[in-house]
């Protein structure tokens, strides 16, 4: 079974984070919500507080297949400034493991040189921060082991792309049908 870590910082976009968690768990993918705040409770940009599964400092990420970054403000800024996450993202990239980011969060990957020679998308206005990437105006972009997406309105598409990348197209289609998401191809 694939294992995914999704990182939550205060000010994250709740829909982007929790949609990924919900749909991956429906697909029987082990997804762990990780707090980078030092507190198991993280409050999103719309004042919804979520209880995470683990603190960053307590986790051993060596068993993961993918790291996911939700956007939102100031959540993206808070994730970008976390030194431990910075090192972890670079380790996953160097090891050929999968990375995914939505909304403003692809700018984190860009700022760390992790989108070099990749196609990527992001929330409008953050394109300049996708250093080294070929910026695409698409809802979800999958380029090798990197998945990026535009924002809250694309959270289901983003989640299904992650499922497809980890468990196959049939599983993603099964989840899309189960949630009555009609335009998954």
Write out key terms for the chains shown.
Rossmann fold; globular; two-stranded antiparallel ribbon; alpha/beta; 22% strand; 185 residues
Structural summary, described in words:
This protein is α/β, with parallel strands linked by helices and 185 residues long. The chain has a single domain (3-178), classed as 3-Layer(aba) Sandwich (Rossmann fold). It is 32% helix and 22% strand. The protein has six helices and eleven strands. The protein has helices at 14-26, 75-80, 83-94, 106-111, 155-167, 169-178; strands spanning 3-8, 30-35, 41-43, 49-51, 54-55, 66-69, 98-102, 119-120, 134-135, 140-143, 146-149. A seven-stranded mixed beta sheet has the order 5-2-1-6-7-11-10, sandwiched between helices. The protein is globular, with a radius of gyration of 15 Å. The model has no long low-confidence stretch (mean pLDDT 96).
Mean of all residue-level pLDDT scores: 96
Assembly status: single chain
Under CATH, the homologous superfamily reads Class I glutamine amidotransferase (GATase) domain
CATH classification class? Alpha Beta
Q: What does this entry show, briefly?
A:
32% of the residues lie in helices and 22% in strands.
Task: Describe how the helices and strands are arranged.
Blueprint: E1 3-8, H1 14-26, E2 30-35, E3 41-43, E4 49-51, E5 54-55, E6 66-69, H2 75-80, H3 83-94, E7 98-102, H4 106-111, E8 119-120, E9 134-135, E10 140-143, E11 146-149, H5 155-167, H6 169-178
Parallel strand pairs: 1-2, 1-6, 2-5, 6-7, 7-11, 8-9
Antiparallel strand pairs: 3-4, 10-11
Helix pairs in contact: 1-5, 5-6
């Amino acid at each position: 079974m694939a294992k995914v870590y999704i990182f939550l910082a205060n000010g994250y976009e709740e829909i982007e984070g929790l949609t990924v968690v919900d749909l991956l768990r429906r697909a029987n993918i082990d997804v762990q919500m990780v707090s980078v705040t030092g507190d198991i409770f993280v409050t999103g940009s719309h004042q919804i507080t979520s209880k995470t599964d683990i603190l960053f400092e307590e986790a051993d990420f060596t068993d993961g297949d993918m790291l996911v970054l939700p956007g939102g403000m100031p959540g993206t800024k808070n994730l970008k400034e976390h030194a431990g996450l910075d090192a972890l993202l670079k380790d996953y990239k160097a090891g050929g493991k999968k990375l995914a980011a939505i909304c403003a969060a692809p700018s984190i990957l860009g700022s760390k040189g992790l989108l070099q020679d990749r196609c990527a998308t992001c929330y409008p206005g953050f394109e300049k921060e996708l250093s080294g990437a070929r910026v695409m105006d698409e809802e979800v972009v999958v380029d090798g082991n990197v998945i990026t997406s535009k924002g809250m309105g694309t959270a289901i598409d983003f989640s299904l792309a992650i499922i497809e990348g980890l468990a196959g197209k049939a599983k993603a289609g099964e989840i899309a049908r189960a949630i009555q998401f009609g335009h998954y191809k």
